[in-house]
Design a protein that fits this description.
alpha+beta, Heat Shock Protein 90, 623 residues, eight-stranded mixed sheet, 3 domains, five-stranded mixed sheet, Ribosomal Protein S5, domain 2
Length: 623
């Protein structure tokens, strides 16, 4: 008799449970996450989380949710048992947090688990004790409505897995992070976190997100957080709080994103958030963001990852662009620059200005600050200073109007420094135009007064943002104007530079340069972008050509064209260590008021800093 040996065999149920547990239960915080989701799905409004040894010895979660009947309590220990899915169609219309139907069974298979639950007001509930996935004991006992899940000795039967657990404080940190995320998403629920009988978090029920953010992330952050509320039809809604560009972190740990109430750490969403802050943050810095995206459940699959952190969108680019554009629309006005910080020591002019500021802000609401490309003619507006000379007198009821080019001005009109200029009632002035100019420090920083506050402005960063925004809008409209040189300039290049310039001649033309081969490794520069004026255009052409070569062409070029425009803007604007007359400063301020994202240069550095009178007085020990 011949017997055939099989290589394929069915795994025993106990091993299957441990494999499933490996997908769901990575560490104590994984247990906390799964049990918290079940508590929230049960309608709980008060949740207590108790841990010992970072959760390695004990995890106990008590809630006041709907509880379970005796039969449901037994079924909850079975694999793939759930109250949240009935048909395969439900998988694509999920509105609950927990749905995998194996969390409790998986947790029980690698721990000693005790479940106490009651689904009525009579006070009669049931207790089930399981060890290593096997039910050992069942009792009836008196309980208030709700559920208590107690998990002891996690991975007691998997010593190899237990060795990978970290120190007590590390595991506690991961668990606290899970509670923080759930608490942010549910401000109407109270959360208490205890570790070794010591209260770590005690969060009461709050009316809204701001109060919950203040309790979790710090009240001092609130003044630098902007509310966001955007909608794209009925399918996409975005709400939450996002930080002003000056409030950043060194890691992405403070980017909290939620889809339909579920915390996710999705690459598409993370990229969209950073795209919204593009050219507003310095390299290596990240914003503080608490964002909630509401989307039709049929448009997103949240079951593509065991931990449910990653999702798959049916229309990925639509969601990405909606998030990025929503953040940009909220950040674009930079209205936080005008934050009122006046105190009782402000002079009469400062008080008058604050009243005028309130009036003008009301007038400016809803009016776009983008004035580079005229809506009617789509004509390119010249850069800072390209205007007729029209200097006002030193009257306190008038203000300087647009001035000649910087390159044509000397250091006259310094007597105007320190004088407050106010537009006539028929005119409107933005925040920067209303500032009282005090002077220039180190020929790099402009000192101004706003009421009782001292304002310091980085002149290079400010002008760089102006030049970049104009170039970006002009490039998008295909209207970067060129200026023909009276005498073409011959560029003598090395082999790499010449090859880069020749290969990217068409792209250079779209940026406002006109270049022709002049034999060998030489080229004739015949026209340059108007914005460059009398700057060192030849050196910039070589820099741009090499940057184009580094980036590449086609899709990569289109995605990175802003880097080229930043390079051009940096070459074209005023520098640090450059003396400016007050009329030049006024022209710069008027241009700043016309543009978006005026709070930061394209590299993310701040344009201005505000120092209150109280801060100055503290420096001189007056407080």
């Amino acid at each position: 008799m011949v017997t055939m040996k099989t290589k394929i065999h069915v795994l025993p149920e106990e091993l299957c449970n441990k494999i499933a547990a490996g997908e769901v239960v990575e560490r104590p915080s994984s247990v906390v996450k799964e049990l918290l989701e079940n508590s929230l799905d049960a309608g709980s409004t008060d949740i207590l989380i108790e841990l010992e040894a970072g959760g390695k010895r004990l995890i106990r979660i008590t809630d006041n949710g709907c509880g379970m009947s005796r039969q449901d309590a037994f079924l909850s220990f079975e694999r793939h048992a759930t109250s949240k899915i009935r048909t395969d169609a439900d998988l694509f219309a999920l509105t609950t947090l927990g749905f995998r139907g194996e969390a409790l069974a998986s947790i029980a298979s690698v721990s000693r688990l005790r479940l106490k639950t009651c689904d009525n007001d009579d006070g009669l509930g049931q207790q089930i004790y399981a060890e290593g996935g096997r039910i050992k004991n069942v009792d009836e006992l008196g309980l208030p409505q709700g559920t208590v899940v107690e998990v002891r000795n996690l991975f007691f039967n998997l010593p190899a897995r237990k060795k990978f657990l970290r120190k007590e404080q590390t595991e506690l940190g991961h668990a606290a992070d899970v509670v923080t995320k759930q608490a942010l998403a549910n401000p109407g629920v109270s959360f208490r976190l205890k570790h070794n009988d010591r209260i770590i978090l005690d969060l009461r029920r709050e009316k809204g997100l701001r109060e919950r953010v203040a309790a979790l992330l710090g009240r001092s952050l609130l003044r630098d957080l902007l509310p966001i509320e955007q909608q794209n039809g009925d399918d996409l809604q975005l709400s939450g709080l996002i930080s002003q560009p000056q409030l950043t972190r060194s890691a992405a740990s403070h980017i909290y994103t939620f889809i339909n109430g579920r915390y996710i750490r999705d690459r598409v969403v993370q990229h969209a958030v950073m795209e919204g802050y593009r050219h507003l943050l310095m390299k290596g810095r990240y914003p503080v963001v608490v964002l909630f995206l509401q989307i039709d459940p049929a448009q997103v699959d949240v079951n593509v990852h065991p931990t449910k952190h990653e999702v798959r969108f049916r229309e990925q680019s639509l969601v990405h662009d909606f998030i990025a554009n929503s953040l940009q629309q909220t950040l674009r006005p930079a209205e936080w620059l005008e934050r009122e910080t006046f105190d009782s020591s402000a002079n009469e002019v400062g008080n008058y200005l604050s009243e005028r500021q309130d009036h003008m802000v009301k007038q400016e609401n809803g009016v776009s600050a983008n004035s580079f490309v005229s809506e009617s003619s789509a004509q390119y507006v010249p850069p800072v200073g390209h205007f007729q000379n029209n200097i006002a007198t030193e009257s306190t009821t008038q203000q300087f109007y647009p001035s000649p080019p910087f390159s044509q001005l000397g250091s006259e009109d310094q007597s105007a420094i320190g004088t407050q200029y106010i537009l006539p009632e028929s005119e409107e002035a933005g925040f920067f135009s209303r500032l009282q100019i005090l002077g220039q420090y180190h020929q790099s920083y402009l000192l101004c007064q706003d009421g009782a506050d001292l304002i310091m402005i980085d002149q290079h960063a400010a002008h760089e943002r102006v030049g970049f925004e104009k170039l970006r809008h002009a490039y998008a409209a295909g209207t970067i104007p060129s200026q023909t040189l009276l005498f073409p300039e011959v560029l003598e290049l090395d082999f790499n530079s010449a090859a880069a310039l020749g290969d990217n001649q068409h792209e250079l033309e779209s940026l406002g340069f006109e270049i022709e081969p002049f034999g060998g490794k030489s080229f004739a520069l015949k026209a340059i972008p108007q914005l460059l004026e009398n700057r060192d255009a030849a050196r910039l052409v070589v820099d741009v050509a090499l940057e184009l070569e580094r980036i590449g062409r086609t899709g990569q070029l289109r995605e990175s064209i802003d880097e080229i425009l930043i390079l051009m803007a940096c070459h074209s604007v005023i520098r640090a260590n450059q003396a400016l007359a007050v009329i030049e400063i006024r022209a710069l301020f008027q241009e700043l008021d016309k543009i978006d994202f005026k709070a930061n240069c394209p590299h993310g550095r701040p344009v201005m800093q505000r120092i209150t009178l109280a801060e100055v007085e503290r420096l001189f020990r007056r407080q």
